[in-house]
Design goal:
heterodimer; A: 194 residues; alpha+beta; 7-stranded antiparallel β-sheet; 3 helices; globular; B: mainly alpha; disordered C terminus; Slowmo/Ups (chain A)
Chain lengths: 194, 91
C-alpha cells in the first residue's frame, strides 16, 4: 500500500476555485477523461451539496489491443462523491476506481479550503491511497502509480487554472457585449435629440 | 463534457448549464432554497439510468439506458441520501 499526499495554494478565492472544480472536465490537461455523468445530487438537511458522479476514462490503449478485447472494455470508470459546504467554505471530493477493483484500488481525497491567512487564496490538500493486489512487485507498481498520480495532480491543478481563466474570459466577454448594447441606444437617443 | 451514454449528452449539457449557473449565483451565496434545475435533472437521469419507456416523449436512441447497457458496476454503491464516508474499497 502506498500513500501519497500533497498541498497546493491557488491564487484565487475559494468560490472561484470551487466553481471551476465543479466544471473541471473537459480540459486539455486531462484528455483521458472522456465522459462525466451526475448520478445523484442533493442538498442535505445541513445545507451541504452532495454530488455523486461517474467518470469514464480512456487511456489510449493501442488499437491492436482494442481489436482483441473489444472497444467497450477499454474504458475505466471512477466514482466520485463531493460535498460542498457554502457556510464553512469547504469542498471535499473523494473518488475511487470501480473498474479493475480486483487488481488495484486507488482512493483519492481532495479538500479545498480558503487559505487560513490570505482570504483571497485557496488551499488544496490531496491524498491518494494506492493498493495493487495479488501480483508480485506490487510495491514497485504502487510506486509507479504514485508517480503517475503525482504528475496527474500537477495536471489537475493546471486544469483548474485553465477552467478559471476560461470562466473569467467568458465573464469579460459578456460584460463587454453588455456595455456595447447599452452604448448604442444612448447614442441613438443623443442623435434624435439634435 | 460528454455523457458516459452518448445519447444523453445533449440532456446533460442543458442540465449542466442550469446547475453551473445556480451553483455560482445562488448556492455559494447562501441561497440554496429552490430547485430550478430539477426538471432538467430528471429528464437527464431518465436517459442515463432508466428504461427508455419511462423517459419523456422525445427521440432517444436505443442505447439510452446508458449505464445498464455498458455494464458499469455501480450496484452496491450508496448514492441515495446524505451518505457519510466513502464507499469502502477492499485493500
Amino acid at each position: 500500500m502506498k500513500i501519497w499526499t500533497s498541498e497546493h495554494v491557488f491564487d484565487h478565492p475559494w468560490e472561484t476555485v470551487t466553481t471551476a472544480a465543479m466544471q473541471k472536465y473537459p480540459n486539455p490537461m486531462n484528455p483521458s477523461v472522456v465522459g462525466v455523468d451526475v448520478l445523484d445530487r442533493h442538498v442535505d438537511a445541513s445545507g451541504k451539496l452532495h454530488s455523486h458522479r461517474l467518470l469514464s476514462t480512456e487511456w489510449g490503449i493501442p488499437s491492436i489491443v482494442k481489436s482483441l478485447i473489444g472497444t467497450c472494455r477499454t474504458k475505466t470508470y471512477v466514482q466520485e462523491h463531493s460535498v460542498v459546504d457554502p457556510v464553512k467554505k469547504t469542498m471535499e471530493l473523494k473518488s475511487s476506481n470501480i473498474s479493475f477493483t480486483n487488481l488495484v484500488s486507488v482512493d483519492e481525497r481532495l479538500v479545498y479550503k480558503p487559505h487560513p491567512h490570505e482570504p483571497d487564496k485557496t488551499v488544496l490538500t490531496q491524498e491518494a491511497i494506492i493498493a495493487v493486489k495479488g501480483v508480485s512487485l506490487s510495491s514497485y507498481l504502487e510506486g509507479l502509480m504514485a508517480n503517475t498520480i503525482s504528475s496527474n495532480a500537477n495536471k489537475g491543478r493546471e486544469a483548474l487554472e485553465w477552467v478559471i481563466n476560461r470562466l473569467n474570459a467568458e465573464i469579460e466577454e459578456f460584460t463587454a457585449s453588455a456595455r456595447g448594447t447599452m452604448r448604442n441606444p444612448m447614442a441613438a437617443a443623443a442623435f434624435v435629440e439634435k | 463534457m460528454n455523457s458516459v451514454g452518448e445519447a444523453c449528452t445533449e440532456l446533460k449539457r442543458e442540465y449542466d448549464q442550469c446547475f453551473n449557473r445556480w451553483f455560482a449565483e445562488k448556492f455559494l451565496k447562501g441561497e440554496s432554497a429552490g430547485d430550478p434545475c430539477g426538471q432538467l435533472f430528471k429528464r437527464y437521469q431518465l436517459c442515463v439510468q432508466v428504461r427508455p419507456a419511462l423517459a419523456p416523449a422525445r427521440p432517444v436512441a436505443a442505447d439510452s439506458k446508458a449505464i445498464k447497457e455498458k455494464d458499469i458496476p455501480i450496484e452496491g454503491l450508496e448514492f441515495m441520501g446524505p451518505s457519510k464516508g466513502k464507499t469502502e474499497n477492499s485493500s
